[in-house]
Every structure is written in structure tokens, then in C-alpha cells.
From TrEMBL:
This is Holliday junction branch migration complex subunit RuvA. It comes from Jeotgalibacillus soli. Keywords: ATP-binding, Cytoplasm, DNA damage, DNA recombination, DNA repair, DNA-binding, Helicase, Hydrolase, Nucleotide-binding. Residues 152-203 are annotated as: Domain III. The gene is ruvA. Residues 72-91, 107-126 form the Helix-hairpin-helix DNA-binding motif class domain. Homotetramer. Forms an RuvA(8)-RuvB(12)-Holliday junction (HJ) complex. HJ DNA is sandwiched between 2 RuvA tetramers; dsDNA enters through RuvA and exits via RuvB. An RuvB hexamer assembles on each DNA strand where it exits the tetramer. Each RuvB hexamer is contacted by two RuvA subunits (via domain III) on 2 adjacent RuvB subunits; this complex drives branch migration. In the full resolvosome a probable DNA-RuvA(4)-RuvB(12)-RuvC(2) complex forms which resolves the HJ. It holds the Pfam family RuvA_C. One of its GO terms (biological process) is DNA recombination.
Amino acid sequence: MYEYIKGQIAQISTEYVVVDHQGIGYQLFMPNPFVMSSKQGELVTIYTYQYVREDQLTLFGFPTMEEKLLFMKLLSVSGIGPKGALAILAAGAPEQVIQAIENENDTFLTKFPGVGKKTARQMILDLKGKLQDVVPDYFPNLFADPNKANLSEWHEMEEALLALKALGYSERELKKIEPVLKKESLSTDEYIKKGLQLMLKLS
């Protein structure tokens, strides 16, 4: 019903954001609401998916259309509901999820909450070869040479650390996770997700 909502970020919680559009606050459940922390109070566009069941009416929000499309593809897999699809998008970099499906890496897929061997195989069966058409521009380097250095990785990690600091984490806490983050090759948002996962393990 709703393709997107444009408004100001009025509130951010661990599970959702509230977008104020013309005086109405829309609660949008997101994979990682904290990626919007730098935009709080700003005018943003969030792509939405309305999930309707007899006992549930929920709006899910995504910063990009590509992430929304990937969410919808995951929902089409038997055994994966909206919470499971959100958990996959939140806990793993979408590019890594797509790579795992394309490479039939069910061991990687079973690392996500609620995804067992059977569901992982179903994901591969249903989605392999179909995701590149859905997100052709989202992962332009998906099948590029993995040995090529990404010159922006360091800058992106630094931006992620600054974002985590803005969320209230101390320099001492950030120093504990920095060596782990340095081993990864991720985007800024993905570094933030990874950092949040590591912080939760420390707490």
C-alpha cells in the first residue's frame, strides 16, 4: 500500500524508527535502526513494506529500495517470516547473504537466527540466480576479483567508529572492537552493524 514515506526521523529505538510525516508518526521496523542516527531530525525517504495478517499490521522500513526488494525476496522463502528476514538483513551484510546463496554456502546462512539447514537449503533453491536481477546496481562488485584492494575500506571503518561513538560508546569500548573490525572488508553501514554485534557480546 505504501511505497515510501518521506518525513523527519523523530525517534530511534533498537527495533524501529518513528518518521514524522505531516504530524503523524509512522512506526517503521528496520533491520538496523541505528544507521539512521546521523539523520535524526532530517528529512529522509524510507522505503516501506506493509505486512498484513489477521492479527498483525506492521510497516517495515528500509533506507534503500534494493534492501526492501531483498527483504521481499527473503519473505518469499518458505520458513522465513518478517522477523527472520529482518534478522538476516541486520546481522549480515546483504552482499554476503547474496554471495552465500549464489555459492550455495548453507553453512554461512545457518549462522543467522532462526535459519536451520533446511531453511538455508530452501533459500538457495528459491533464490539462487534470481537476486542479481533484483539488485543489479546494489552490489556492482559482487563477482569482482576479491584480491583487489578497496581503497575506501579504512575511511568507511573510521566513519563507522565515529557513528558508534555518537551512539554513546566510549573510546575504551571502541578500542576493544577495532582490531576485529580491521579484519573485515565492509561498507560503513555494515561496519556499524558488525560493531553493534560486537558491543552486544561485550555487554
